[in-house]
Every structure is written in structure tokens, then in C-alpha cells.
Amino acid sequence: MGRGNAGGGLGGGLGAGVTVWDITTGIATYSPHWHDMLGYAVGEIPPHADEWMNRVHPDDMPLIQAEMEPLLSAKTPTARLEFRMRCKDGRWKWVLGYALIVSRDNDGQPLRLIGVNLEIDDRKRAEIVRDALFGAMVDAGVGLFALNRGQMVFANAAMTTITGYTPEE
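The structure corresponding to this sequence follows.
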């Protein structure tokens, strides 16, 4: 299973980084694409779940813990998370993660988890810019409105001032 394996192996054909975590031992197997996504060579990261957790941005850990608790306790079948991971070069990369418990013991305790991580850095940067521009327009008094199938469903205070209409109109 070499780097950039487009065909087989863990996540090779998905364009996704895949992690298989044996919860009882803490051993985690990371796909070649998972390593590539963070700028590491295959085998450069020890095969332990702590290595994944140590690369998650500290501000994102409470969200991850809150989303993983229902999955681990069998209240939900999957978890979906957006978080940042530290790359080998020290920068933070946005990742979309899906997790699924694939086996449990007779008491319902989780034994094995599969995680799929997709890089969403470009999308998150675009969202941050969009939100900043929207905030700046609101702060600058730009009139904003939203339509849904030709019907106005939102108008901010600046738009009602500019047009002279009330929000209800």
C-alpha cells in the first residue's frame, strides 16, 4: 500500500483519509491519504489514536468530545464533525470527519471505529471570507434582503430605511 495509492487500501479510491481505531487497545491505522493530507510520510506517525487527537486544534476538542459521546454510547449511529488538524509544517487544515462504530461487545461497548476525514480547507476559508464580508456589509449599513422563490423572506434594518418599507411590507 504505497503513497498515493489510487486503487486499493484504506481510503485509496475515496480521496479521503481513513482511520481504523481499535478502541480497546488504542491502536489506530491511518491510510496513506490521511498521512498525505497532513503532510506526513506513511509510517511517520505512530499507530495510536492519541496521535490523531494530538493533531486536533485545542479549541475544537470540546466539539469533538460532545459529538463523539452519543456515538460511543450508541445513542447515534454516526458522528459528523468539522475541525482543524495540525499539519507537519505547523499550519492548521480544516477537515470534515465522519465516524462510525463498526463493532461493539455484548454489553454494547464500542470496540472498533472507522473514521473518514476529508480536507475542506478551501471551503472553510471561503465561508470565513463570506461571513466577514456579510458582517462588514451589515456594519456599514448596506441594505440586504433575501428571496425565496420570488418572495422576500428577509430584509435588514438598512434595507427598510433605504426603501421606506417596514419589515412586514
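Residues 2 and 25 are 26 Å apart (CA to CA).
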